[in-house]
Amino acid sequence: MANDPTLLAGAIAPIDDFPAALAWSADGKRLVVGGGEGRLYLVDAASGAVRQFGEHAPGVLELAWQPKGDLLAVGGQDGAVRLWDMNDPDAAPRMLHRATRWPAGLGWRADGQRLAFASGRDALVFDATGAAHAPLKGHEVTLSHLAWRGREELIAAGNGALYVDRLDSGAIEQLVLEGTPLTLAISPDGRIAASGLADGTMNFRYLNNRKRSRMSGYEGKVEHTSWSGNSRYLATASSGASSVVVWDFSGKGPEGSEPLQLNAHEDRIEWLGFQPAGALLVSAGRDWRVALWRPARANRTAPDIQLLDGPAGTTCWSPDGRRLALTQPAGKVRFFSISPS
User: Fold this and answer.
1) In sequence order, what are the residues at sequence separation of 6 or more whose Cβ sits closer than 8 angstroms to the Cβ of residue 70?
2) Which of 25, 101, 106, 274 sits a CA distance of 20 to 30 A from 316?
3) Which of 291, 257, 132, 208 lies closest to 246 in space, CA to CA?
4) How many angstroms separate the CA atoms of 274 and 202, rounded?
5) What is the number of alpha carbons within 13 Å of residue 326 lying toward its C-beta?
6) Domain annotation covers residue 1
7) Which residues pair with 71 in a beta bridge?
């Protein structure tokens, strides 16, 4: 359709490692790539210039760049979380925590003043100086996911359980999850915690009244979930599936309704994500395709499809939603920008 946005191909950057995790700088000009063998690369999004600045052996699991700041948190397979100052990335990082278990759910609060992650059955919180706050203990299962809800709440998930943790009081409320979570996505308005489960269902928990619901019918484990910026749509995909399933949470919500099915891929979807604070959705697949969608139009045809030279891997929107970084398993990062609609 006329005036539809498109993906504009930009710089291509070679990475001498398997790209395992991505994190954009707050201004959307730089990208950090964490490798499966532990190398850390800083990439200029405009030119594609790459340089290695550090290492987190034996492998990087998660990255989190501080909103409105220059601190980069890195969680790795050695059970450690380190903090880099990206004003001087060549300087030695600060060790925040190290344990036998891998950290999970590494993420900054929206104001960039607190960092949280899960380690075993504990939720750990640090401030921007690296000072530790009292850990949240008492979870009955190992935590696999963690996400911020506002300033004083963390939502945590593990096998069969969802938790609401209060930082100000240390209180922990346990809720039933009815399965093994593979994803945890909090709607931007903070109302709903959505978890893709290993049994091929979606679990929705309305956090204000604790109501829960489930959606079934997926082909496999639900491994991908992403909320639109206005909290109306939840995009999902299951393992092995080539379709994106989008639930509409307007009105009475998705219960009893048929989801929107978006079909543009011929092989499994490797990543999907809504544009931050925007209406655009991107899906990337093993079929060498990247598809751009506008689900609000209820149009089952992708406005734009880009063909790659191999399967897609980890992908990430810049904070302002103007750029997209897409990795490929062979060791490559591709940048796209969004044309005006």
Assistant:
1) 25, 26, 85, 86, 87
2) 101
3) 257
4) 18
5) 31
6) no
7) 85
Distance in Å from the first CA to the final CA of the chain? 10
CA Rg value for the chain: 19
| Number of separate helices (H) and strands (E) present in the chain | 0, 31
> Could you tell me the CATH number of the domain that includes residue 151?
2.130.10.10
pTM (predicted TM-score): 0.95
> Looking up tokens 């397979």, which residue turns up?
77
Among the listed residues 144, 166, 170, 171, the one whose alpha carbon sits nearest the alpha carbon of residue 156? 144
In total, how many domains does the chain have?
1
pLDDT category of residue 290 using cuts at 50, 70 and 90: very high
Share of the chain above pLDDT 70, in %: 98
- Rounded to an integer, what distance in angstroms lies between the CA atom of residue 288 and that of residue 91? 38
- Per-residue model confidence (pLDDT) at position 256: 78
Is residue 183 within 8 Å of residue 200, measured between CB atoms?
no
Q: At 167, phi and psi to the nearest 5? A: -70, -35
Cα separation values, 292 from 166, 280, 304, 338, Å? 38, 7, 5, 10
Euclidean distance between CA atoms 36 and 285, whole angstroms: 20
- Tell me how far apart the alpha carbons of residues 333 and 285 are, in angstroms, rounded to a whole number: 15
Q: Residue written as tokens 């993420």? A: 107
C-alpha distances in Å from residue 279, one per residue of 196, 228, 261, 297: 22, 7, 17, 10
Domain that holds residue 40: 7-338
Let me know if residue 2 belongs to a domain.
no
Confidence band for 298, pLDDT divided at 50, 70 and 90: low
- Please say if the pLDDT value at position 2 is more than 60: no
> Within 13 Å, how many C-alpha atoms sit on residue 320's CB side?
11
Give the C-alpha distances (Å, rounded to integers) separating 162 from 3, 133, 205, 241.
Answer: 43, 22, 9, 26
User: Could you tell me if 117 and 126 are in contact, meaning their C-beta atoms sit under 8 angstroms apart?
Assistant: no
**Could you read off the pLDDT of 269-283 as tens digits, one per residue?**
999 999 998 889 999
Residue 96 structure tokens: 């925040």
- The answer to the question of residue 211 being in a domain is yes
Q: Is residue 262 part of a domain?
A: yes
